[in-house]
Design goal:
Layout (H helix, E strand, L loop, with lengths): L1 E6 L6 E5 L3 E4 L2 E4 H11 L2 H21 L7 E5 L1 H4 L4 H12 L6 E5 L2 H4 L2 H14 L2 E7 L5 H5 L6 E4 L11 H16 L3 E4 L5 H10 L3 E3 L27
Parallel strand pairs: 2-5, 5-6, 6-7, 7-8, 8-9, 9-10
Antiparallel strand pairs: 1-2, 1-10, 3-4
Helix pairs in contact: 2-4
Length: 242
């Protein structure tokens, strides 16, 4: 499944984010939050994650061939995948086979990818970043130790958890927290993506606070493969409105 991510500041920059939201088993849909933990425990998340990565890269190339060019695709990566001995080789092979520019691929990691072996995670990230691949921390702010990891990890972006967004435009405390997170990240040359945007008021507030990108149902719900030509119909934000 994929979902649109929209720039808060650039005139046109729409990215796509890929993850598994659910699967169909005997005419029943089993959602990701139920089967992914089981897949991680059994090790099946490695072939599943590798398949998602390959399909996302192939879809990006297909869009390019159709004349549609998302600025970047983002793919969720499990902690089990990241620490698999073949992960670096798998990413390199997929990029080589599909022909996708490494700079167009962003790999999203959650905190669980770092808690067991931070040094190994950093080593893997550094190898792939040399190729041009980008990394981001997903669900940032949802756990107390996110700041500790941020100072140690060579990442390009953080995705602020939607916990901050629910009543953002009328909650001054939430606005202050988010503004400080954005300021801190920018001082570290880290891009900020805000998740969970569902209303125009939320988007306007996040834009004014200085976020770089936004993601949420306001711009489109998760879908299967789709034609990216709808990008021409997205109403961009003026940089002057920031």
């Amino acid at each position: 499944m994929n979902q649109t991510r929209k720039s808060s500041t650039a005139s046109i920059r729409t990215n796509f984010w890929f993850e598994i939201h659910g699967t169909r088993i005997k005419n029943h849909i089993v959602f990701g939050h139920k089967f992914i933990p089981i897949a991680e425990e059994t090790g099946l998340i490695v072939p599943i994650g590798n398949w998602v990565l390959e399909q996302a890269c192939r879809q990006a190339i297909l869009w390019q061939q159709q004349g549609d060019l998302p600025a970047q695709i983002a793919v969720n990566v499990s902690a089990v995948q990241l620490h698999n001995t073949d992960f670096t080789g798998t990413v390199c092979s997929v990029l080589l086979e599909t022909g996708l520019d490494p700079a167009q691929l962003e790999l999203e990691l959650t905190e669980s990818a770092f808690v067991d072996d931070l040094s190994a995670a950093v080593a893997t990230i550094l190898v792939l970043r040399k190729l041009g691949t980008r990394f981001s921390i997903d669900d940032f702010g949802s756990r107390y130790s996110s700041l500790a990891y941020l100072k140690s990890l060579p990442v390009d972006a953080i995705k602020v958890d939607q916990f901050f967004i629910a009543d953002l435009y009328r909650n001054e405390v939430a606005q202050t927290l988010l503004a400080n997170i954005i300021s801190m990240a920018h001082n570290m040359k880290i891009r900020v993506v805000v998740e969970g945007i569902e209303t125009q008021e939320q988007f306007d507030t996040v834009r004014l606070l200085g976020a770089d990108d936004t993601q949420g149902y306001l711009f489109g719900r998760p879908q299967g493969r789709l034609n990216a030509s709808f990008l021409s119909h997205v109403q961009p934000c003026s940089p002057q409105q920031r």
